[in-house]
Amino acid sequence: QVQLVETGGGLVQPGGSLRLSCVASGFTFNIYAMSWHRQAPGKERELVAMFTGGGGTYYANSVRGRFSISSDNAKSTLYLQMNSLKPDDTAVYYCRWLTHWGQGTQVTVSS
Predict the structure, then answer these.
(1) Alpha-carbon distance 94 to 38, whole Å?
(2) What's the sign of the alpha-carbon dihedral 30, 70, 43, 62?
(3) Fewer CB atoms < 10 Å away: N or C end of the chain?
(4) Strands 105-109 and 10-12, how do they pair?
(5) Strand locations in the chain, DSSP E?
(6) Per-residue pLDDT for the chain (111 aa), expressed as one digit of tens each?
(7) Cβ–Cβ < 8 Å for 79, 21
(8) DSSP string covering 4-16, please?
(9) Cβ contacts of residue 74 below 8 Å, gap of 6+?
(10) Virtual torsion, Cα 69, 74, 19, 33, nearest 10 deg
């Protein structure tokens, strides 16, 4: 059974940092089929970051230069390091593998 469990969300002040984790189980961990997404209130879910072929990465324009995706294959864990957070980053953040989604973790950026 595929499971994706996100942790690391919380309340942070503008300019702060958080690191999200997504622990995967029930399948062969493959970073190239995994991605981070987010959904803000009243908005559609959007792709935030993912690994691309050839060892590259993709970031949404709104987070490029501030967020960083990484992984620990030995722990079957995907990470999203988020720096210089802004109120517009407030959303529920989801980990995805193919058609499977985690339950999400809430990130709130507010003073």
Answers:
(1) 6
(2) negative
(3) N
(4) parallel
(5) 3-7, 10-12, 18-25, 34-39, 46-51, 57-59, 67-72, 77-82, 91-97, 100-101, 105-109
(6) 999 999 999 999 999 999 999 999 999 998 888 999 999 999 999 999 999 988 899 999 999 999 999 999 999 999 999 999 999 999 999 999 999 999 999 999 999
(7) yes
(8) EEEE--EEE-TT-
(9) none
(10) 40
